[in-house]
Amino acid sequence: MPAASDYEPAPVVETIAKDLIAKHHPHLASAAISYVFTHKKMTHQGRQAAGKMSRPPKLQVYHHDFDFILIVDWQWWADNGRSKQQKLALIDHELCHGTAKEDAKTGDVKFGIRGHDVEEFAEIIERHQLWTEELRKFHGFAMTNVKKFIETGSGNTDRKDWLETLLVLTADAMGVDLPSDKAPTEKVDTQVDVDPDSQISHLELEEAAA
Description:
The structure is a single chain. By secondary structure, the chain is an alpha/beta fold. The chain has two domains: 1-116 and 191-210, no CATH class; 117-189, no CATH class. Helix content is 44%, strand content 17%. The strands form three sheets. The chain has a four-stranded mixed beta sheet, sandwiched between helices. The protein has a three-stranded mixed beta sheet with strand order 3-4-9. It has a two-stranded antiparallel sheet with strand order 7-8. Helix 1 (11-24) packs across helix 4 (84-95), helix 4 packs parallel to helix 7 and helix 6 runs antiparallel to helix 7 (157-174). It is globular and about 45 Å long. The two termini are 20 Å apart. Mean pLDDT is 75; it is low at 180-210.
């Protein structure tokens, strides 16, 4: 079990997330979210994970009343080469995993986790191209936004950062490895990993929330 000192509160992430929730994720407005930095490397399917949005085990919900835990890799966040736009995109991405459904009878809100819109293997795309409606829609959306940002601000640093982030997240979500001259220096995965064994313990969460 990881030590409690491996985790610490992430108020800067909370500030960004609250703004994003107000603008793009209003269904999470009533959710109690614990924002945490981790000093332990997170991985998913053998690749480094920059962030994870997950539901805490029931015992932790009972004691702490958290609906979600949003964990961010501190080393990834503190990298001097990391742009504000990339950090914003990561938090926005993780918040997209959170769902909320109101019970028609009781009015109670049930929170949950959803996967990515697209999951696919690189070799399948290579052999069969955009063979599903989901892949075609995702590709069309990505290309439309790339074209828009190229036309409206190819010389703008923030827009370049956004474009790079879109390229990385698109390739990651579709399971495509970028060419070496286009890929970032580290392989980052923002895939959610809902694994009870990887959750923060009661003691760790208590210290992080203090």
